[in-house]
Amino acid sequence: MDALRQLDTWPVRTAAAVVLRSPGTGGAGGAAGAGGPRAVATQVGVAGDPTVRFRLASVSKLMSAYAVLVAIEEGALALDEPAGPESSTVAHLLAHASGLAFSGDRVMARPGTRRIYSNTGFEELGRHLERVTDIPFDVYLAEAVFRPLGMGTAVLEGSPAHAVTATLADVGAFAAELLAPSLVSAATFAAATSVAFPGLAGVLPGFGAQHPNDWGLGFEIRGTKSPHWTAATNSPATFGHFGRSGTFVWVDPAVNVACVVLTDRDFGDWAGAAWPVLSADVLAELEVARTA
């Protein structure tokens, strides 16, 4: 894929990327849901060494959230059960709507009234799952997500909010799951990738105040945000996450495409400029190929 050649011009030492596409049969993101036939995603472009390990930073939240969704599917948790500060639920924590500050125990708003991006919220999710299952969160994540998806080198060593390390091959396998989910039902996946607690304003880290600052259950949703780390040509339904370590994953269900980029340079102005260009070029190249 020609678009991925621009990674060679980025101010990073090491970068790897993969673009995947699903035929899009059977529901959101091409999913039939757990237990149904899958529209298997295939690689349409790759760059870099797929075996180099990267710190994922906040891309880890996607995988931690997915483990929580699996726990919900298994009946270990419920979205509406209390978790976190008073009046907060599992859903509030997943959607950064619990009122918890980014770090520490401070509660800055009533649950459901503001979108406050919170590492603490994901750490509380991890503790809550541990309490109800009596399984350490890193073990649950490995058994519920990493092992079934063949993510053989992925590991969580620390906070569920930011401490996964993995290779491009691992994260690509996870992105393929997001295009054609097999570990959760179509209904659960649709809820996770739709706006939770609509209309909440907040700050998108690195990109400033957003009104609204749409989020699903662990998945950031592009919506009408501007500026943003994806392209203006990504559909509003695009969901994913970026990490401070210079990583991102997005899935655009309007075209059944996923893009993963991993680098070894922390997010900064360089990424805010380069990532939307890459995303736009990936989408444009695939559209040209589709119509050729």
UniProtKB/TrEMBL annotation:
Transmembrane segments: none annotated. InterPro entries: Beta-lactam-related (IPR001466), Beta-lactam/transpept-like (IPR012338), Diverse_Enzym_Activities (IPR050789). Residues 47-277 form the Beta-lactamase-related domain. This is Penicillin-binding protein. It comes from the Bacteria. It comes from Parafrankia soli. PANTHER family: BETA-LACTAMASE-RELATED, CONSERVED PROTEIN. Pfam families: Beta-lactamase (PF00144).
